[in-house]
Amino acid sequence: MKLGWGSKKFTLVIIPDANRSVRQFEMLNSIPYIAATAVFVLILVTLVLFFFQGRTAVIADQLKVKIDSQELVYTHTVEDKNETIEQLQNEVIKLSQQTSEMKARIDDIRKMEDEVRSITGSTKIVAAAEGTNTLDSAMGGISHPATNNDVNELLSQTKTQLSDMDLELAALQQSITDTKHKALAIKEQLRVTPNIWPVDSHRITSGFGLRQDPFTRRPSFHSGYDISAPANSEVSVTADGIVRITGSDSERGNHIVVDHSNGLQTMYMHLNKILVQKNDSVQKGQLIGLVGSTGRSTGYHLHYEVLQNGVSVDPLPYLK
Ligand SMILES: [Zn+2]
């Protein structure tokens, strides 16, 4: 009977040394093939494992590089954010300082406005925030890193200060508007109130009140000021107004009466020439006539008279 592959045998002979007997083993001829295949598979598996191990190491390295790179990015991001936070904190500090400076300037404006108001006699409008404590702008001391709480506190104070300033500015604006209206009213009042001399000359030859009449030599009441001036000196109206009378008679000579406000009138007598007409609007300082000696006069002079509600009053308070 013919044997197949499975029936063939190999003999394995082992010779230990010369003094010992040779040992031999018989085995089927398929075993070496199986062993070779096993070794091959083992080598293949080992190679595959090496390959995957290498591959895994590469991936791990790549991941490590990626993680390192991400970590670097995050580190930079955190640094950038910290820097941004510091910048913002410095901006808060700067804003606070600017707010304090602005508050000081508002205080200065308020003081100036107080002075103007005292001149115009306006009523003070009290700011809601007036008297609020302000931040001290003085600098110095030991440097301590500011904490978030410090900056938050400063930000809170700055917000309060800005809010107070907003209220104060609103009150100040209202107060200044009030003062402006008052000043304009005073300006208007001054414009229509006699307060300048009617001629350049200030030489008073006869005052207001009782005197000896220059013609009769008897005591009489003089209702104005006689101001001596060269013939044809310019006569100016002493306040804005309307020319009420232009006329001529044996007493007053050529004369002008001008209406002002508050029942005030001014009268200019003994003129050589009248340069305005009845109902003319005239402005303070405007030329209205020339000095003469017409009417009841002893020489070139201007009789200047101020009337309040039709009654002659001392012109002195109305002369600058
Ligand atoms: Zn007179």
TrEMBL record:
Coiled-coil positions are 78-105
Whether Glycoprotein counts among this entry's keywords is no
* UniProt cross-references to Gene3D superfamilies, sorted A to Z: Glucose Permease (Domain IIA)
Spell out the CDD domains in the cross-references.
Answer: M23_peptidase (cd12797)
Residue span(s) of domain M23ase beta-sheet core: 221-315
Q: The organism sits in which domain of life?
A: Bacteria
Q: Which InterPro entries match?
A: Cell_wall_metabolism_enzyme (IPR050570), Dup_hybrid_motif (IPR011055), M23ase_b-sheet_dom (IPR016047)
TM region(s), chain numbering: 30-52
Q: Which is a Pfam family this sequence falls into?
A: Peptidase_M23
Q: Does the keyword Disulfide bond apply?
A: no
User: What are the record keywords, sorted?
Assistant: Coiled coil, Membrane, Signal, Transmembrane, Transmembrane helix
The cross-references to PANTHER family, in alphabetical order and at most eight, read: L-ALA--D-GLU ENDOPEPTIDASE, PEPTIDASE-RELATED
Descriptive protein name: Peptidoglycan DD-metalloendopeptidase family protein
